[in-house]
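hiii, so i know i said id send this last week but things got crazy w the move. better late than never?? heres the sequnce for the chain we talked about at the cafe, plus the structure i predicted for it. fair warning i was half asleep when i ran it
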Amino acid sequence: MPPRIPRLVVGRSSIFGLPIPAQSQRICPICSLSRVSLRASKHPTPRPGQLRIQRRNQSTAPSTSTADILSTRTFADPRNALRSALANLQQDAASFVNISRLQLAIRGLEQEAGQETIRIGILGLADGGNSLEKAKELLRLLVVDPLNPEEEWERILVDDQQGKPILIKVGHNGKDEIGGRLVQELHVSSPLLNGHKLELLVLEMDPAGDVERFTDAVLVPTMEIPTSSTGRYTPVTTPVHKSLVVADGLLGAATLLSYSPDIDRESINTAVNLQIGTPEERATLPVRTLNVKLGAEALDGFRQSVDNALDYEKKWFASGIPEIQEWIKSGTAPTDGTTKPPVLSLVQSLLRSTSQAVDAEQSRRLSAALAAKVSSSDLQDLRQEMSEWAERAHTELRDQLDIAFGGQRWSKLGWWKLFWRVDDVSMISNDILQQRFLTEAEKEIVFLSGRIAETGIADELSSQATSKNWAYKPVVEKDAEATLGSEPPPPVLKDLVEPRDHLPGRIKARPWPLHIPATRDYLAQETVPALQALAQKLVLQTLSTSSLASVFAGLMYVSSVSTGLYECGAVAALGIVWSLRRMQGKWETARKFWEGEVREEGRKAVRGVEGVIGDALVSSPLQLQGDAELQKARKAVEHAEAALAASK
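okay and structure toks below
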């Protein structure tokens, strides 16, 4: 960004002999005079008697109460809150915000609401002076009073051959400043624009680059200020609220078309001076066209004689200048206590560009860090290996569990074998988990994590595990009743479907994802004991029910003479069959449920590892230098955006 001149009154002859101060102290040269006068009007010099009274009051009033009152007044007014937020933005995001535009926005908020001064730039393209000449003539036609004869400021504006920037203050009371100033100031009265408090700055500019750079060059044009002794020129930025870019001829139209496809037409407008074709033909062009010469002829004819009013009106509207006047008047009229739209648009545009600058800097730092550590080919290879690992893991989970649940050891836990193998349920289930549950996939993910750490994408995967929450927390479906059928599961079986979030803490952190061992630990320590307890409970219930049925049948046989042996045997057989059938149904349902639980938790573990490694390969959890600075700037922008929303 070009350097800015110090906060001094514009036009002091000593300005050329002073060195340019630091970045934080620079300010737009046009704003400085207004800020000094504004402070003088807000703080007039008291008389000696008033000064003594003020000092006596200050000495007797408590300081804390005064501070509270000032703080309350500052934040009760949304404009003051927005101004304070912009001041904080200058401190916290100085590297990302345009200081010139920020000072212009603060200057507007310091003025009375609805009476802000709006600065509009009339910029001529750098083409040897032709566009600048047309821009000055257009500015004269926009402001001139056709009922008055030619005034002195018109001759100064049109006859200037040095190409110095000229600032026209419309409706401001003051004396014209012509010589010895950085910016030549002319005070003009216009019947159309008086009361709008406008500052019209005309100068030459040379936009270059893409649309973003074009916007910056138009809204923050640069003036070339000659130094006093060396003959060199110092660039000084002069921000504006709105800009009109003026070009001349077909070449100028082609230049504007290459820079102005996606710009905000409320803040930036373009016009081309073309004297070819009819107004209807020029209206079909993709740019706004003007005929400055035709407008000047209309003005000269009207000043010569009022009888030329009809000819003046016809040529004036055919020149296209009234449309430009309406665009200048849009949003600049005084309002009743509300902030003018160009001031709010300036703040909004400033915050948007600052946020984009912070995002661009973060992307640049991230790209630089990634380019310094790992290449795109390595990332692609790691992603391919991760995809192949996930495919092998799902295949292993399916095949190994099919072998385990269809093998001889698992068949030993059939319902009718529980009477002599009830104590083997935990041993056989744990053996299946330790030998068949993603054993090869766990070894391969350890190797793949080492490859990732070797490339530098994650410097310390063990430290990333805590921040990324790599430790697995099982999420178990709670629709066990639908899975088990219409009959709800026994109370002990309910433990199978309750997640245990404390289990991952038992596994020590390792430099690789811990989803698989944590899932195995969860199944072994939570679901297997529940399955063991259910087996023991079913065996006990079956034996108890069968014994009770047999005892009841025996009592019937002994106590009743009419009851025969066959009837008593039928009662005993009914109790035994019913208890065995109940045991068979509950145990087989529990076994099927546990098999499905192991498969589902294994699938979730593989997906969890795949997601964590995939995120690491995509987003690259690198620690960027200056990340605290970016976060501080982002918070300052968010605070200013909230204050802007409250002030609307």
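btw Residues 116-334 form one domain. thought thatd interest u
miss u guys!!
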